[in-house]
Design brief:
two-stranded antiparallel ribbon, mainly alpha, globular
Amino acid sequence: MEIGLNMGTDIDTLTLDMLRFASLLRIMELAKLAQNYEDLAVKLRADSSTKAVDEAREWVFGSFGQGSGSLSDRYVYKNGSVDDVLNAEYEELLQKLTDFANGS
């Protein structure tokens, strides 16, 4: 397990979370954002330097958006209604990524 130098970031766990988050974003029809998360996860696995982790934090923070339509205002729908199980996973991953973006 490779640990990033920045605040002991566990790169393996972080990138797995990013990849799962990306799969949920695809269900939510946010394919471009999902691809960006996948690309970032691959990049961090190749380079987990402090600089790369700091840049990832900044990008993740910016990806959330603000106000109406932000990622925190979205839900995972499947078959026309909110999928409670997937949505709970989405919210958990969103919180983990928020914590990462905020440096915790």
